[in-house]
Amino acid sequence: MKITVLKFHTLLLCGALAFSACKKSKETVNNPPTDNSETAEATASTDHNDYLMISDQTSEEANVIVSGNSNTSGSGSGSGSLSLVIGLSVDSSHVSANSCFKLTYSGTSSAGYSRNGWDSIWVVGAGGLGHNWANINAYIIQKYDYTCTKPNGKTMRLVGRDTTWNIGGGNFFAMLTGSTQTTDHSGTATITFDDGTQRTWSHSRRKVRTYASGMITTTVSGKHSGSGSSTIDTWGTDRRGKTFYAEITNSLVWKYSSNSHSNNGSNTCAHWYDAISGVVTYKGTDDNTTITYGVDASGTATTNNNCPYGYKVNWVFQGQTGTKIYSY
User: Fold this and answer.
1) Least enclosed by CB within 10 Å: which of 48, 58, 89, 151?
2) Domain span at 246
3) What does the pLDDT read at residue 37?
């Protein structure tokens, strides 16, 4: 077993409850990769993390935007300021007519990466387009085309459609008064990677948010069933042309302050957008990778730690095994 300890910044959660896939990606490698397994698994795990966290961020921002508009938040459900979301502009001029918001990405997000492009958001009630996001079974439709750029210049373009269902009722700002907000998320995007490779990926996940003592805790689990698993979060074909699926075997957990959208310095941890715990298993036609979030510098999973060192990757690739420890 080869063990490599290195610095690797990868997106883990942005925006409102966010999660930041495109944060700094400055990398220090103490022992440079010498075999194909390390290179392949580093690429596969980074691509998956980026998609997971970028798609999470856009859905969280949509949740905040429709929760903060009096036309769509839902009667008596709580309302708040859209200033919590930065790095984009919101056109609300069509909301009263068709419950549609138009977003333009043109700046740096709260997690420190940039996006350029657009996103359209529709709020749909039981009887069609309506102004009732706080109602149970209401849903948000998003259609988008934007490019995310990391500080190191690496890019990922996403073109697709996502749907967010309100499972338990209420909205983001109602959750800040002490309730729980549960939403289900599904979508498919055509992804263009920085090397020009283009693939289609899909996701299906549930997010549960609670609020206490000024901090939001968000738990994410996979919902798609296939290949003998019922906790798959993402599936598709990777940039190597290999079919894969990624299942959340232990729920991912984030903890951060309620104004993280606009000010990441308000958190007790500088990298608030990184998961503090959870396990994802990435499986393909010739590999099997386990990513454990919230570990210390030796790779041991921590408990009750809101600011852990990083995450650990264990893999089996074409008969080769290896381990890497990444710092956030």
Assistant:
1) 89
2) 2-327
3) 67
Q: What SS3 class is residue 99?
A: coil
How many structural domains is the chain composed of?
1
Structure tokens at 23: 């944060």
Contact 24, 41 (CB under 8 A): no
Spatial CB neighbours of 7, under 8 Å, sequence gap ≥ 6 = 26, 27, 28, 326, 327
| Greatest alpha-carbon span in the chain | 61
CB of 99 closer than 8 Å to CB of 92? no
Rounded to whole angstroms, the Cα distance separating 174 from 182 reads 12
Chain segment 229-259, per-residue pLDDT in tens: 999 999 999 988 889 999 999 999 988 877 6
DSSP assignments along 118-169, one per residue: EEEEEEEETTEE-S-TTSTT-EEEEEEEEEEE-TTS-EEEEEEEEEEEESS-
> Which pair of structure tokens corresponds to residue 107?
């700046």
pLDDT for res 233: 95
Q: Containing H/E element for 252?
A: strand 243-257
Torsion angle of C-alpha atoms 89, 92, 94, 98, degrees rounded to 10: 110
In the chain, the amino acid numbered 312 is K
Report pTM. 0.83
Task: Give the SS3 label for residue 62.
Answer: helix
Tokens representing 279 are: 């396990």
